[in-house]
Design brief:
The complex is a heterodimer of chains A (150) and B (397). With 150 residues, chain A is mainly β. Chain A contains 3 helices and 8 strands; from the N terminus they run ααββββββαββ. Helix content of chain A is 10%, strand content 34%. In chain A, 32% of the residues are buried. Chain B has 397 residues and is an alpha/beta fold. Chain B has one domain: Peroxisomal Thiolase, Chain A, domain 1. In chain B, α6 crosses α11. Chain B is globular. The model of chain B has no long low-confidence stretch (mean pLDDT 95). Classes of the chains: A mainly beta (150), B alpha/beta (397).
């Protein structure tokens, strides 16, 4: 009897970037908006605090009223590292790659990757100006950054 | 010193010797074996334990199951789990429970088979349930090591700290590890290349793992565990070994904030509380057991707990001053060899208490002459991101 498994069944799946869950309640609205390539953040109209990461309640006051704002998408690298070793099935194929904290001009500090550089070892630095560079996926987009264009 | 209280003391300790159990022993067995030996070290028995502390690494619902497994009936249960510093929190809570008269003998245990399970702690992805914070970050592929590397890069940017200065941490701990037979065995079992004292050059020339952190600035992933018995002054008076008093404790947490400074940890909050309670100063410490997941962890924490000002750590550690045979230069660092060169099964906090106790008993393999005061400072979670800080000040009679 021949093996019924076809080549297609054992074909290796290409590893992909781990994507956020659209079902996570505090952050769902943020990720839904990324489909339109909008980077949203929350500000409280009562106490003015900028809340990041997104969540349902204000961390600045107990009678908060969080409003969604849209970032202009420009910011500065607060710190970064270039990953040389990863055991993750997707990221191990991407080394070396840069991870960075980016301070958006509006205030939120988010974790992302720096793209649009030939060599992350020499072309990424603390204090560098960057702008959003969206990576499109089926239901959402991922907010990466690239060096700011002039 | 007039207000210093001596209400509870570490009276029994055990460090599980093997760092590679080859899958033949599990975490719960390591905890139980260590607990029995620590109780025996104190001259106590299972039936004396009336307070149990557990970080939940061995089993779910650990407050229930660990008591049954050990065969004890405690009336104080505390399952604080805040990462690697959980054991400093447990010591703090045990002191309070004993001081309140709610407990006389507290038992803390830890067990892990991270090495046997081939857990990719440092360079793996993040797992587990989805928190909103994680849901914003997992897409970026930030390894745990890269998280610490980002603190190091920022520290370098703000203060001019160099890789050579960070390497001082690794060389001092390796210097101590080479005097600790269990650490040498650990490095042998984990197949370290070059089991010998290291130079600054060795460290900065080792492979880059996540810029700017090199291989020899990263802790090992081992198996291991241990136990600590903390008792009231009344019980301690009748124990076999001299008491190591818990003089002061502090707890704090910190997390990513817009505009926050990732070079300063929650230790800047917890340490002053602990020193104030103990009525002593950082400069009086003979021993500094500081959580060494990475070189930068120690450098930032040394600053935060008050050995030097923020940003001055790089210059402060230079010239080998952290070695055990340089007592005039301040405290000796991680005299067991630390997580960098002795053991790191995932949550290292209990080993800080164990080696500090050995030093104050005169039992260390890198013994500081007449060591009287020690700090055990744990960092749990991820430095620079969401983390906890637990500070414990210890002293002998």
């Amino acid at each position: 009897m021949s093996d019924s498994k076809t080549d297609a069944n054992v074909e290796k799946k290409v590893p992909t970037r781990p994507l956020p869950k659209l079902t996570e309640l505090d952050t769902a609205e943020f990720w839904q908006a990324t489909a339109q390539q909008e980077f949203r953040y929350q500000q409280c109209s009562n106490c003015d605090i900028i809340v990041w990461h997104p969540r349902a309640h204000c961390t600045g006051c107990v009678d908060g009223d969080l409003q969604w704002k849209v970032s202009a998408g420009k910011g500065t690298i607060y710190s970064y590292s270039v990953v040389r070793l990863s055991y993750h099935p997707f990221f191990r194929t991407k080394v070396p790659y840069a991870v960075a904290y980016v301070d958006l001009d509006e205030g939120p500090r988010f974790l992302t990757n720096v793209t649009g550089v030939d060599d992350p070892l020499t072309e990424v630095s603390v204090g560098q100006r960057v702008e959003l560079a969206w990576e499109e996926h089926e239901e959402l987009s991922i907010p990466l950054v690239k060096p700011e264009s002039e | 010193m007039a207000t210093q209280r001596r209400d509870a003391a570490i009276v029994g300790i055990h460090e599980y010797p093997s760092r590679d159990v080859e899958g033949k022993v599990n975490a719960l067995q390591i905890k139980a074996a260590s607990a029995a030996k620590a109780l025996a070290d104190a001259g106590l028995n299972w039936s004396d334990v009336d307070a149990i502390y557990d970080a939940g690494e061995g089993a779910p619902m650990s407050g229930l199951m660990i008591s049954e497994y050990f065969g004890i009936k405690p009336t104080v249960m505390d399952t604080t789990g805040v990462g690697g510093s959980s054991y400093e929190f447990h010591a703090a809570h045990a002191l309070r429970a004993i001081r309140e008269g709610k407990a006389k003998v507290a038992l803390l245990t830890y067990g892990s088979t991270a090495h046997s399970n081939a857990m990719a702690i440092g360079a793996g992805g993040r797992g587990g349930s989805i928190t909103p914070g994680d849901n914003m970050e997992t897409f970026a592929g930030q390894t745990l090591i890269a998280n610490y590397a980002m603190v190091a890069h920022r520290h370098m940017h703000q203060y001019g700290t160099t890789s050579e200065q960070l390497a001082e941490i690794s060389t001092a701990t390796r210097y101590h590890a080479m005097r600790n037979p269990e650490a040498v065995q650990a490095m042998t079992d984990l197949e370290f290349v070059g089991i010998q004292e290291t130079s600054i050059e060795d460290v900065v020339n080792s492979r880059m793992i996540a810029d700017p952190l090199h291989l020899l600035e990263c802790c090992m992933v081992s198996d291991g565990g241990g136990a600590v018995v903390i008792a009231s002054a009344e019980v301690a008076a009748n124990c076999q070994k001299p008491p190591v008093w818990i003089l002061g404790t502090g707890e704090a947490t910190k997390y990513p904030e817009n505009g926050g400074d990732i070079t300063t940890s929650a230790g800047a909050q917890s340490a002053p509380i602990a020193f104030a309670e103990a009525g002593v100063k950082p400069s009086e410490m003979d021993i500094a057991m500081i959580y060494d997941s990475f070189s930068i962890t120690v450098l930032a924490l040394l600053e935060d707990v008050g050995f030097c000002a923020k940003g001055e750590g790089g210059a402060w550690v230079q010239g080998g001053r952290l070695r055990f045979d340089r007592p005039d230069d301040g405290p000796a660092l991680n005299t067991d060899g630390g997580g960098l060169s002795s053991n790191h099964p995932g949550m290292r906090g209990i080993f800080l208490l164990l080696e500090a106790t050995r030093q104050l008993r005169g039992e260390s393999t890198a013994q500081v002459d007449d060591a009287r005061l020690a700090i055990a400072h744990g960092n749990g979670g991820m430095l620079g991101a969401r983390h906890s800080a637990g500070t414990v000040i210890l002293g002998r009679d």
